[in-house]
Design a protein that fits this description.
15% strand, 40% helix, alpha/beta, 21 helices, 600 residues, D-amino Acid Aminotransferase, Chain A, domain 1, Rossmann fold, single chain, 3 domains
């Protein structure tokens, strides 16, 4: 529903402007709630496209068989009719009675709705409905869904404006009935229609029916959570760590991709216990309407086909595999930034093996300050939400139990930022020690991979030097420290053991949810891959002086810096100032990076 409504036009330009627009010659078409497919004669070949202008390739056809009939029937319908090169034909496609939300009983299977010339997938010229209607006759397809042409009378204008501005008195029971009586015509002849589109010159305005709004809202409310889908991707991510690619025999890019995915799927199913009673719908992307079935025509792996044909859960899983390795992903829901980075590396390897060029925009995005997800983009699940998901998914995934030895001495981990380390953070360490009566290990996330841009980041050398000095000044309180590659719970435990065993991890405010989800995944989903203490906990603490300490470096205010930071890091002020000036551009070739001793 990307078009402006009449109500929006009135709100922006006024009722007089809307009336003047409707005084002119208009063409009104019915909006059809069906699939859309496009085709074009290109280099003497008929190419097919989805509504988002992506070509319908073998992988798309394998994921969903709804396109197969159209790809066979449309060339047959066209027959010997010569199509002009470079003209894209848009078709409303109804493969089943209820393609999306509205059931249709009177629609032609194929309706020619539009014709256009495109450049770089953008429309540069559109054909009028008269010419489209002529081509519909030549191609033996349904004519465009035009229900009115000409000038509207005053009563027609009044009713259309009143309906879209919610001032309609209800003379008719439904919008479909009103359209039929008011415009003397209806295209689909259904009791419920999505709405109409009014074309005035180059301007397009739409009116959506109240009935369709309610129907659409009910479908949205029925969409289930994608948590199960995300958890499957987490499981695949873990499996791929030990996966070895086979010797490939396929020739085309699409066939090679399906060959690789089928091999991954087959080996995954052999190693992971999957319950056939698991509900396949949990693994489907949120959607409404007819979704079709997996098309097995292009799957050559016999063992993969055996799994697929044995149960619907395997078919749903295969579709997840086939769709997931096609494009780089972004952090979302349970898929944190560290998880996505790892998954995207496998996507890149597969693309390289299939010689496919992928969009690399996600790899060029600026990372967050500490290479972590600041907040879950959809929502921050509470513990009950997470346990509900995990309890449900246990039926499908039952990983082996791990026997990981724990460390010798209990400690707390303070995973925080050093930009610079403040007196407030030192107070946090003391409070952690006093409450849990354990030493505190310092941890920071490397800035090595953070893109230098609008935000200033201290070098890893300065961060490590701060941690070393803090430890030397407070040896009994801070016996050791670590530099992590990412915000990884598993990496923390690998560093600590066998000498130390984390009793708790404390992060900066806003970072806790990342660690909580990692813990649920490792311990509940993957059967104890970290083996934490029963009383292990994750918390967060506020760094009250973070901004003011950073400003002291930005302003070059040494006195204020000394007030905001502990004595043990005062000697690094000059190094921080030099790095800030270098980043700011005040010092260029003359600046030599500070040499730091190697930290063991």
């Amino acid at each position: 529903m990307g078009l402006n409504t009449l109500a929006t036009l009135i709100q922006k330009r006024g009722k007089d402007y809307a009336n003047k627009s409707l005084d002119k010659e208009v063409i009104i078409t019915e909006k059809l709630d069906v699939f859309r497919i496009m085709f074009e004669q290109k280099d003497n070949q008929l190419k097919f496209y989805k509504s988002d202008n992506t070509e319908i390739d073998i992988i798309t056809r394998t994921l969903d068989n709804i396109w197969e009939s159209a790809l066979i029937e449309i060339p047959t319908i066209i027959g010997n009719t010569k199509l002009p090169e470079g003209i894209r034909f848009g078709v409303a496609y109804t493969p089943v009675e209820r393609p999306l939300r509205i059931p249709y009983t009177n629609l032609p299977r194929y309706i020619l709705t539009d014709m256009s010339k495109r450049k770089n997938n953008k429309v540069v010229e559109s054909y009028d409905y008269k010419e489209i209607t002529e081509w519909a006759g030549l191609l033996c397809m349904g004519r465009p869904p035009v229900i009115f042409e000409g000038k509207l009378n005053e009563e027609q204008k009044r009713l259309l404006i009143a309906y879209d501005t919610k001032q309609y008195d209800g003379e008719c029971d439904t919008f479909s009935e009103m359209v039929t009586k008011t415009l003397k015509s209806s295209y689909s002849k259904e009791d419920i229609i999505e709405g109409i589109v009014i074309k005035e010159g180059k301007n397009l305005y739409q009116i959506i029916s109240y009935e369709f709004d309610l129907l659409n809202e009910s479908h949205k409310n029925a969409i289930s959570s994608r948590d199960f889908y995300d958890i499957v991707l987490l499981s695949i991510n873990d499996f791929m760590e030990n996966y070895k690619f086979p010797k490939l025999v396929s020739e085309s890019t699409d066939e090679t991709y399906i060959e690789i995915v089928s091999d991954i799927f087959e080996k995954y199913c052999k190693t992971e216990k999957i319950s056939k009673s698991f509900e396949p719908g949990y693994l489907e992307s949120p959607q409404f309407g007819h979704s079709g079935n997996l098309n097995k025509r292009f799957i050559k792996n016999k063992q993969a086909l055996k799994y697929i044909e044995s149960s619907k859960i395997y078919e749903a899983l295969y579709r997840v595999f086939l769709s997931s390795f096609r494009k780089y992903k972004k952090p979302y829901g349970l898929l944190t930034e560290s998880v996505v980075d790892k998954f995207n590396s496998f996507v890149g390897i597969i693309a390289d093996k299939t010689n496919e060029k992928l969009e690399l925009t996600i790899l060029n995005e600026k990372l967050s300050d500490n290479i972590t997800v600041k907040a879950l983009k959809r929502r921050i699940p509470n513990d009950i939400d997470n346990m509900r998901v995990i309890a449900s998914v246990q039926r499908a995934f039952n990983p082996p139990q791990y026997n990981i030895p724990q460390g010798e001495k209990r400690v707390a981990i303070y995973l925080t930022s050093f930009k610079p380390f403040t007196s407030a953070q030192m107070t946090n360490i003391e409070q952690i020690h006093n409450k849990w009566n354990v030493p505190v290990l310092l941890a920071a996330v490397s800035n090595e991979n953070v893109l230098k841009g609008n935000d200033f980041h201290l070098s890893d050398g300065v961060i490590l030097s701060q941690m070393k000095s803090l430890s030397n000044f407070n040896k009994s309180l801070i016996p050791s420290y670590m530099m992590l590659n990412t915000w990884s719970l598993r990496e923390i435990f690998q560093f600590c053991r066998p000498h130390y065993e984390p009793l708790l991890v404390i992060t900066d405010t806003g970072k806790k949810s990342e660690m909580v989800l990692q813990l649920f995944y490792e311990e509940e989903i993957m059967g104890g891959k970290i083996n934490v203490l029963d009383e292990f906990n994750i918390g967060e603490m506020l760094n009250k002086e973070a901004i003011s300490a950073y400003r002291s470096i930005e302003d070059g205010n040494g006195v204020y810096f000394m007030e905001q930071t502990p004595k043990s890091i005062h000697s690094f002020y000059d190094n921080m100032i030099n790095e800030f000036r270098s980043w700011e551009g005040a010092v260029l070739d003359q600046f030599e990076p500070t040499k730091y001793p190697e930290i063991k």
